Amino acid sequence: MATTLVLPHEDPSRSARTAHKAGTPLPPRTPARFPALRDLGPNWYASVMGTAIVANAGATLPYQVPGQRTACQIVWVLAAVALAVLLTARAGHWLYHRDRARAHLLDPAVAPFYGCLSMALLAVGAGTLVVGKDLIGEPAAVVANAALFTAGTAVGLLMAVVVPYLMVVRHEIDAAQAGPVWLLPLVSPMVSAATGPLLVPHLPAGQAREALLLGCYAMFGLSLLATLLLLPLVFGRLLTGGVLPLLLTPTLFLVLGPLGQSTTAVNQLADVAPLAVGAPYAGALGAFAVVYGVPVMGFALLWLALAAALLVRAARAGMGFAMTWWALTFPVGTCVTGAAGLARHTGLTAFAWLAAALYAALLVAWLLAAGHTLRGLATGRLLPRRPAAG
Q1: Theoretical Cys-Cys bridge with 194: which of 52, 265, 319, 351, CB 3.0 to 4.6 Å?
Q2: What is the mean pLDDT of the chain?
């Protein structure tokens, strides 16, 4: 997910060029403030998403062991702190390195990652009601989740339009560049559809609950249909263009995001449907959760096997660490919550075991990605500080 942009040096101003031709020395360039923020792209929000899903998925697993919820609370706090720090740092990026920030939006390799901001807000917000309420109380958790859900949904819907618009009218791309990262801005509304049901019981009965429920189904449809348009391009790129570059191989796991998240969404929505709509719709939505979720989870497992095989191949070929490793966390976590939802609605132990096995894989991926990220930050490799210009 880390993409290095090479920008042309800005030309000096006309007055500076004139002074230079006249023999007057050029004034020294003022070094940019906070140079370490210059390479801080929107892809860093993936680390918040990947951390938050560890807490959210762990707290909703069918199997719980002593201390598990406490551990999830600690991880949620880490995600919340990371979100606050990253929001501040990204604000500094836009304030002090606006040229780079604009270049990110105009780069087809980076712009899709703006969808990660929405998903980071939504994931941490959902965690406030899943585990955070134990620490800050339910009333505060409801308010915090409502604020983060509203902000995350607004950003997600905006990016679902802005990024495809830029890809059509400003970005220079072709089918050979199609990749899983193109899905990111389109998955954001699906995350809203999966996390919105947490707020339904806290709304007044009647119109408010029904509006949120049906609004979540609308975002489910928006994201699902858009994903179905892009998936053939992604798979076709693999078949005709060959394997992705080594460092981009982990992004293949991003395809699991809309699959696992849509399965989670239909199960979460079915849980609260009886609170918002009456018969026969509530029962039909419960049946739809299973009828839709089971085959989609089957396809998710097929893609997981393919992506894992390509990841092993890349590792053997010498794939090093990059921020793309965070693609191994959140998408897998959505499959955990999707399998847990199916276990809840079908009563099948097989889905409960599947959720537990996927969660174990999620933990390994998170520990690896987090460990390497912290090491990269400590050494300055991920966000290098440039020497001050004289």
Answers
A1: 265
A2: 89
Rounded distance, CA 86 to CA 80, Å? 10
Do residues 355 and 343 make contact, with C-beta atoms less than 8 angstroms apart?
yes
Extract the tokens encoding 30: 């003022």
The answer to whether 323 touches 43, Cβ cutoff 8 Å, is yes
200, 129 contact by CB (below 8 A): no
CA distance 111 to 167: 9
Residue 254, Cβ density class (10 Å: 0-12 exposed, 13-18 middle, ≥19 buried): buried
Identify whether the C-beta of residue 264 lies closer than 8 Å to the C-beta of residue 338: yes
**C-alpha to C-alpha distance for 277 and 285, rounded to whole angstroms:** 10
- C-alpha span between 19 and 193 (Å, rounded): 59
Q: What is the largest CA-CA distance in the chain?
A: 85
The DSSP code for 348 is -
C-alpha–C-alpha distance, residues 292 and 310, integer Å: 27
Q: Residue 13 — φ and ψ, nearest 5°?
A: -65, 160
Please answer whether residues 339 and 355 qualify as being in contact, where contact means their C-beta atoms are separated by less than 8 angstroms: yes
C-alpha 271/C-alpha 286 separation (Å) is: 7
Read out DSSP for 29-54?
Answer: PPPPSSGGGTT--GGGHHHHHHHHHH
The model's pLDDT over 17-55, given as tens digits with 9 standing for 90+, comes to 444 444 445 444 445 677 778 889 999 999 999 999 999
Distance CA 61, CA 341 (A): 9
Q: What pTM did the predictor assign?
A: 0.88
Q: What is the pLDDT of residues 103-126, one digit of tens each?
A: 888 888 899 999 999 999 999 999
